[in-house]
């Protein structure tokens, strides 16, 4: 490895680490436990963990078939479809929240139908939080899985097909096992992204304590009235995210570095 790479690598690492150091310097660590144990903070943390878990499960259920279709299908327009699927990666989260609001809100074409036919209103509910988190997090899972499928090739699936296995059997017995390592890393990334989601959530779900106010929204709320509490909650969010990624130890992210 060329030694000169250490210079930009160190700058990149500093760009990530120094802002966290800034938070640590700003915080009186002795007061942190007392600042994060309020009922509102604990409720926000619990809601964040619960909704992130559900949205990650939704990402897996919906994202795995989508990744397989994108990687294995040769239908016209698949590149355009891939660009659309990855759109939440580049869209400002607030724009994503507005899009969801004008789809599922009372004035949205699907939200209006749900309201009139079933009396169901999704915006400003916990379900809206889960939908917003799934919207922004699912591309991370799809990118991980599609990359694994394309790099791994389809020779095992073709061999299974030539031996007489039906498409569904090939998917269950060959494709899914090949996807498991990438599925683990993609799920962890999706969970971490859902945990930190803010813009789409506050636009589509609002900030109702105990209902839609997740930990990032609680940080934003506290920043307006108690900066010390907001900084302490921000550190808590960082610690939880690091624990999630470190404990899960996605092999695809670590490569062979052990």
TrEMBL record:
Membrane topology qualifier: Multi-pass membrane protein
Q: Where is the signal peptide?
A: none
Q: GO CC annotations?
A: plasma membrane
On the tree of life, the source organism's domain of life is Bacteria
- Gene3D superfamilies per the record? MetI-like
Domain ABC transmembrane type-1 as annotated: residue spans: 45-248
Q: Could you tell me the keywords of this UniProt record?
A: Cell membrane, Membrane, Molybdenum, Transmembrane, Transmembrane helix, Transport
Q: Which GO terms describe its molecular function?
A: molybdate ion transmembrane transporter activity
Entry keyword Glycosyltransferase:
no
Tell me where it resides.
Answer: Cell membrane
Keyword set includes rRNA-binding: no
**InterPro entries documented for this protein:** MetI-like, MetI-like_sf, ModB_ABC, NifC_ABC_porter
**Transmembrane residue ranges:** 52-71, 83-104, 124-149, 170-192, 230-248
Question: What Pfam families does the database record attribute to this sequence?
Answer: BPD_transp_1
Known function: Part of the binding-protein-dependent transport system for molybdenum; probably responsible for the translocation of the substrate across the membrane.
Similarity section: Belongs to the binding-protein-dependent transport system permease family. CysTW subfamily.
- Please give the name of this protein: Molybdenum transport system permease
């Amino acid at each position: 490895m060329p030694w000169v790479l250490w210079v930009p690598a160190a700058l990149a690492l500093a760009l990530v680490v120094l802002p966290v150091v800034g938070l640590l310097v700003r915080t009186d660590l002795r007061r942190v436990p007392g600042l994060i144990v309020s009922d509102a903070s604990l409720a926000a943390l619990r809601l964040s963990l619960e909704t992130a878990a559900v949205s990650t499960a939704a990402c897996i259920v919906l994202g795995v078939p989508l990744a397989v279709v994108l990687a294995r299908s040769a239908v016209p327009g698949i590149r355009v479809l891939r660009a659309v699927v990855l759109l939440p990666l580049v869209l400002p989260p607030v724009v994503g929240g507005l899009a969801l609001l004008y789809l599922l809100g009372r004035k949205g074409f699907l939200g209006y139908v749900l309201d009139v036919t079933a009396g169901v209103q999704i915006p400003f509910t916990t379900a809206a939080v889960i939908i917003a988190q799934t919207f922004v997090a699912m591309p991370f899972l799809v990118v991980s899985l599609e990359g694994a499928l394309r790099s791994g090739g389809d020779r095992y699936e073709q061999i299974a097909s030539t031996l007489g296995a039906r498409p569904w059997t090939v998917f269950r017995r060959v494709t899914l096992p090949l996807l498991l390592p990438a599925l683990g890393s993609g799920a962890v990334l999706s969970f971490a992204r859902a945990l930190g989601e803010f813009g789409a959530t506050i636009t589509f779900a609002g900030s109702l304590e105990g209902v839609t106010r997740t930990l990032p929204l609680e940080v934003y709320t506290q920043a307006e009235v108690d900066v010390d509490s907001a900084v302490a909650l921000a550190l808590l969010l960082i610690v939880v995210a690091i624990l999630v990624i470190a404990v899960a130890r996605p092999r695809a992210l670590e490569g062979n570095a052990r």
